[in-house]
Design goal:
The structure holds three protein chains of three kinds. By secondary structure, chain A is mainly α. In chain A, about 80% of the residues lie in helices and about 0% in strands. Chain A has eleven helices and no strands. In chain A, helix 3 crosses helix 6. The longest helix of chain A has about 35 residues. Chain B has one domain: MetI-like (MetI-like fold). Chain B is built from 14 helices and two strands. A two-stranded antiparallel ribbon of chain B has the order 1-2. Chain B is globular and about 70 Å long. Chain C folds into two domains: about 160 residues, D-Maltodextrin-Binding Protein, domain 2, CATH 3.40.190; about 140 residues, 3-Layer(aba) Sandwich (D-Maltodextrin-Binding Protein, domain 2), CATH 3.40.190.10. Helix content of chain C is about 40%, strand content about 15%. In chain C, strands 4, 5, 6, 7, 8, 9, 10 and 11 form an eight-stranded mixed sheet that branches. In chain C, strands 2-1-3 form a three-stranded parallel sheet. The longest helix of chain C is centred in the last third of the chain and has 16 residues. Classes of the chains: A mainly alpha, B mainly alpha, C alpha/beta. Chains in contact: A-B, A-C, B-C. At the A-B interface, helix 1, helix 3, helix 4, helix 5 and helix 6 of A face helix 1, helix 3, helix 4, helix 5 and helix 7 of B.
């Protein structure tokens, strides 16, 4: 009886939050068929926006650039961020508090300030603006999110666990690889997902550090939306959404079969 | 043991090099600029001045700060209230569905935030989908003004920041020993005791991480609040953007950013001092 | 894991090594320049176009100042930023003899007050800021001048552009000053005027104007005529008013920034944009008025003869080009703007 009521609460809560998250997405999908340029009220059905989208090759190039950038940036950010979190947790080195401070500064600095200061740094370093400058910037603003997530999971564990392993003769690499890494894995995955999401959608910082030859999707979208978002962009988001959902479901099913 | 020192050396160098250049150096740049002067012809000229801070030392800044702070706090509160039970329930599901549902939590955010914000506008408009639904159902007889209100701002921000609360919490719940809760239940603990005495303390680091990742960035967000709220008030992000881009006054813009960093850092430090010594490690970040 | 990272890097390298030399780096509004236009140019000349976009003049200016010369070959600043950039020596003088299609531009727009010495910018799009009314909500409202917006009956109803220059221009005009006035005392008076207006303002927005006005989330306020045209295309209750006390004309220009690396290609690109067919296509993308007389002739009649997009000369006489103001005045604007929003 009691079990039942708590189950109901659980599923209602889960459903409600997913509904909250997905209603705007369904509106995006729905409006991609809207027969109007700028209005956000329904004006009848059309498939024209998908035709336009299909022809707009620059948009697809920008999407590819964004995906590549987000993949690289989130992977590297996760490696560096996890290292940082594990080191902060495990070693008592000098300057530890400064390192904390730097992570804090990165997350609290407003995007526009970080964007401009990174731009100035890059031009002092004579780094050409383009893929690499974007990559460096994206890794930088993703790192704090990884550090915070991974660290918050590590402190949950009993540090005696690691000390015991060391007493038993495990080298530090072994402790990192065999104990800390598996324990922190869920947090590392979460860090990866958050970094990927941040990188894929960043506008302000990217705006400053992007160069002429490497246009990424969020910048393109902001610049296209001078008069408002056209349904062509809804169509693009719909395509992205449908493809990701299919990919996730597909990989889930193949993984399930394996196990 | 030789590998050990190599490994340690390598990882620490990597982290220090990265944060040293892209966080410390960048911050020092901002700090330096905030004490310099500017002219029309030059963004920054090497003349030391404190006028940038004097300029900000007026009640206006306090008001803007208060507004941004209250919005950020409200958003963090709602994210926590919605996200905490959500992450808990999610972590209790069957292993296969758990990972799938976690991915489905983040997938909406892989589309453009601008396009999503327009979709929220389409829902909340006077002639929008929500009003249409409520009018058709006869619940209301006059369309409500939802868009361009504070409610719309909070909805938009909570929507965009929710995963940053839920996911770190989920990573914490994931390792939670369910036997602890069962033991408590066997001992006759009520639901309130269960949550308050066991769940909350155990997931404190997760809450802390989530709050940091929602609260700090939302202090300076302004695009979504402007679009959904009608831009009738001014937030910290607007102030900084206004100074950097409209007034071409990089020194004052930098000074605002420095003050923000100092105030938030100060608050964090006070919080840290207030926590008990053995808990400090948990909340340091 | 490591293998995965290596693979990623290989992919990046291969993507980047394709860089070409025969390019032109264009930095402008993506909403103006559709893919077809860029592809047509690439096909005709064999020059690869790297088009990247921004979403405000301020962003363009801040970025150009931070990176210094060399990155971009063609930019698209508005009139008031043209005068600012000329003053900062950021624009390359343009040799108009290299532009075969320069003759297509309406002479009215050549040698404007914001580009007095020589030619630094090619005027392309133009428009005005005026008043819009939704007749469904205000059937017999008589509104002819900016001052009418101050009437107390419009409490909490007005739509405003989220742009300090636009708002201060209105206030300065109602006080009888030029919208390009840098006099600090006049700006202060304008601020006092705007304080009185703020009770009437319902919302500010610059990026979703068409949908807000067209969908009747706002029914009275100020608007650019190009946006108005797009909104009126699906909402027939809208009416545009060119205020009798004067209004601001803005012009978007194409220009070559100092130190551009592919100057010859930049000329070719600008010349291509000045072709009548290209101008027509650009205008159809965003429904703004073009300075290109030959291109205008090719437009469909409803756009070509629209009295909102191309007002009569008599009305245009009341217009004033938007020009730069000095930094001290800008600082005042910014300061007052912040105070205004904090009320």
């Amino acid at each position: 009886m009691k079990k039942n009521s708590s189950n109901i609460t659980r599923y209602t809560w889960l459903t409600a939050v997913y509904a909250f998250l997905y209603i705007p997405i369904f509106v995006v999908v729905f409006y991609s068929f809207n027969n109007t340029q700028f209005s956000l009220v329904w004006h009848g059905m059309t498939l024209n926006w998908y035709q336009d989208l299909w022809r707009d090759t620059n948009l697809w190039v920008a999407l590819f650039h964004s995906l590549l950038l987000a993949l690289c940036a989130s992977t590297i950010a996760v490696v560096i961020g996890s290292f940082a979190a594990m080191n902060l947790y495990w070693y008592r080195f000098r300057g530890r508090h400064l390192l904390y401070g730097l992570v804090f500064i990165l997350i609290v600095t407003p995007d526009i300030v970080l964007g401009i200061s990174l731009l100035i740094l890059f031009s002092l370093m004579h780094l050409d603006l383009g893929f690499w400058s974007l990559l460096l910037a994206h890794i930088t603003f993703c790192i704090p999110f990884v550090v915070i997530t991974v660290y918050s999971r590590l402190v949950d564990f009993d540090s005696h666990l690691f000390e015991a392993a060391r007493d038993l003769g495990a080298s530090e690499i072994t402790i990192f690889r065999r104990i800390m890494l598996p324990l922190a894995l869920p947090a590392i995955i979460v860090g990866l997902l958050l970094s990927f999401t941040l990188s894929l959608d960043d506008v302000v910082i990217s705006y400053f550090v992007a160069g002429p030859g490497y246009e990424i999707l969020p910048l393109k979208i902001f610049s296209m939306a001078r008069l408002g978002v056209r349904p062509e962009l809804n169509a693009l988001c719909t395509v992205i959404f449908v493809i990701t959902v299919l990919l996730v479901l597909l990989s889930h099913m193949t993984l399930r079969k394996k196990t | 043991m030789k590998y050990d020192s190599h490994f340690r050396y390598f990882s620490l160098t990597l982290i220090w090099a990265w944060l040293g250049i892209f966080a410390l150096l960048a911050f020092l740049l901002v700090l330096g600029v905030s004490f310099l002067d500017h002219t029309q012809a030059h963004i920054v000229i090497p003349r030391l001045t404190f006028t940038n801070y004097q300029f900000l030392f007026q009640p206006m800044l306090l008001k803007i700060f208060g507004k941004s702070f209250s919005i950020a706090a409200t958003v963090t509160f709602f994210c926590l209230i919605i996200g905490y039970p959500f992450a808990y329930f999610l972590s209790q599901l069957d292993r296969h569905y758990k990972s799938l549902l976690m991915l489905f939590l983040i997938i909406p955010f892989w589309t453009s935030s601008l396009v999503r914000s327009y979709a929220i506008m389409a829902i909340l408009k006077t002639k929008g989908l929500l009003n249409l639904l409520l009018l058709t159902l006869g619940i209301i007889h006059q369309p409500m003004q939802l868009l361009f209100t504070n409610v719309a701002v909070i909805i938009g921000l909570v929507y965009n920041l929710l995963p940053f609360m839920v996911l770190p919490l989920y990573a914490n719940f994931e390792r939670l020993d369910r036997r602890l809760l069962e033991a408590a239940e066997d001992l006759g603990a009520g639901r309130f005791i269960k949550v308050y005495k066991i769940l909350l303390p155990l997931t404190k680091p997760g809450i802390y991480a989530g709050v940091m990742m929602v609260f700090l960035p939302s202090m300076t967000l302004f695009y979504i609040p402007d679009l959904l709220g009608g831009a009738r008030s001014l937030l910290l992000g607007n102030l900084i953007e206004n100074q950097f881009l409209f007034a071409n006054n990089w020194p004052v813009g930098s000074a605002v950013s420095v003050i923000l960093t100092a105030v938030m850092g100060g608050m964090l430090f006070i919080y840290w001092r207030a926590t008990q010594r053995h808990e400090r490690q948990q909340v340091l970040l | 894991m490591i293998r995965l990272i290596l693979c990623l890097f290989l992919v990046c390298w291969s993507g980047l090594s394709l860089a070409e030399d025969n390019v032109v780096n264009v930095y402008g509004w993506s909403s103006d320049m559709s893919n077809e236009i860029i592809q047509a140019f690439e096909k005709e000349t064999g020059i690869k176009v790297n088009h990247s976009g921004y979403s405000s003049n301020e962003e363009l200016y801040a970025k150009l100042r931070a990176i210094g010369p060399g990155s971009y070959d063609v930019i698209e600043p508005s009139s008031y930023y043209v005068s600012r950039m000329i003053a900062q020596n950021m624009l390359e003088p343009i040799d108009v003899t290299k532009l075969k299609n320069y003759k297509n531009i309406d002479p009215e727009f050549l040698h404007p007050s914001y580009d007095p010495k020589g030619v630094h910018a090619i005027p392309y799009f133009w428009g005005v800021t005026g008043i819009f009314v939704n007749r469904k909500y205000y059937p017999d409202l008589k509104i002819t001048r900016w001052t009418d917006l101050w009437q107390p009956q419009y409490k909490n109803q007005l739509f405003m552009l989220d742009d300090p220059r636009e708002l201060f221009s209105i206030a300065l005009i109602t006080l009888g000053y030029s919208p390009n006035d840098s006099n600090r005392e006049h700006i202060k008076q304008a601020y006092e005027r705007l304080r009185l207006l703020s009770a009437n303002i319902k919302l500010y927005n610059s990026s979703a104007v068409v949908s807000i006005v067209g969908d009747e989330d706002a029914t009275l306020g100020i608007m650019w005529n190009g946006n108005f045209y797009s909104a009126a295309a699906y909402n027939k209750n809208l009416e545009f008013i060119f205020p009798e006390d004067g209004f601001v004309i803005w012009v978007d220009n194409f220009a070559i920034p100092k130190g551009a690396e592919h100057k010859e290609n930049a000329y070719k690109f600008i010349d291509f944009l000045l072709k009548a067919e290209t101008a027509k296509a650009m205008s159809l993308n965003n429904s703004e008025a073009i300075t290109n007389t030959a291109g205008r002739k090719l437009l469909p009649p409803e756009l070509r003869d629209s009295k909102v997009i191309y007002p009569s000369d008599e009305i245009l006489k009341r217009g004033i080009y938007q020009e730069d103001i000095n930094d001290a005045a800008l600082a005042d604007y910014a300061n007052y703007w912040e105070k205004l929003k904090l009320q």
